[in-house]
Design brief:
Helices cover 46% and strands 2% of the residues. Helix 3 packs across helix 6. By secondary structure, it is an all-alpha fold. It has a domain of 118 residues: Cytochrome c-like domain (Cytochrome Bc1 Complex, Chain D, domain 2).
Length: 186
């Protein structure tokens, strides 16, 4: 019985000390090219998914009209494209980010899903409004108003569908080299 308690006490002390030493060492993966930390995926994504499912709005207060999608495209160019890319133009530095941001105008998977078009608009709205810790995704709650966040969310929810004629030219025009948006060619 004494060996059991000694083992238990050593385990309760040794494991936290070993983790503390590891976290203080120069071996922790901190560069963007490094592999994820052990259990990072489950530590970050499971709670995130549960919280989004609990808090995301289930009703969309706007319709996916041509005007809302066009305004959403303007906002996307200004606020999102530098990390998430444009239509046919991935972000030039996304591969050097960790985790890499989703290229929201590129198809992925075997079902032709474009960006996050398979997510409900309320989920995308939650991510835009709140941001995601440890990912580089900022909160836009103090940058965009509620209507603007919904307009971008609706645009992205409909990325796999035909767009109004004014939207794709906005999303195909490259960004200026300084990261600002170039004016679309008529």
């Amino acid at each position: 019985m004494m060996k059991f308690f000694l083992g238990l006490i050593l385990g309760l002390i040794a494991v936290p000390i070993a983790i503390g030493i590891y976290l203080q060492s120069d071996r922790v993966p901190v560069a963007t090219a490094d592999a994820p930390l052990p259990f990072e995926e489950s530590i970050v994504h499971r709670p995130l998914d549960r919280r989004i499912d609990r808090e995301k709005p289930n009703t969309v207060p706007l319709e996916a009209s041509a005007a809302n999608l066009e305004i959403g495209a303007h906002i996307y160019r200004e606020q999102c494209a530098s990390c998430h890319g444009l239509y046919g133009r991935p972000s030039p530095f996304a591969n050097d980010m960790f985790p890499q941001p989703t290229q929201l105008w590129a198809p992925h998977g075997s079902h032709g899903v474009v960006g996050v078009s398979d997510d409900p608009p309320g989920e995308t709205y939650w991510k835009v409004a709140n941001g995601i810790r440890l990912s580089g995704m900022p909160s836009f709650r103090h940058v965009l108003n509620d209507t603007q966040m919904w307009q971008v969310s609706l645009l992205l929810a409909n990325a796999d569908k035909p767009q109004p004629p004014t939207v794709l030219p906005l999303l195909k025009q490259p960004l200026d080299l300084d990261g600002s948006t170039a004016q679309p060619n008529p």
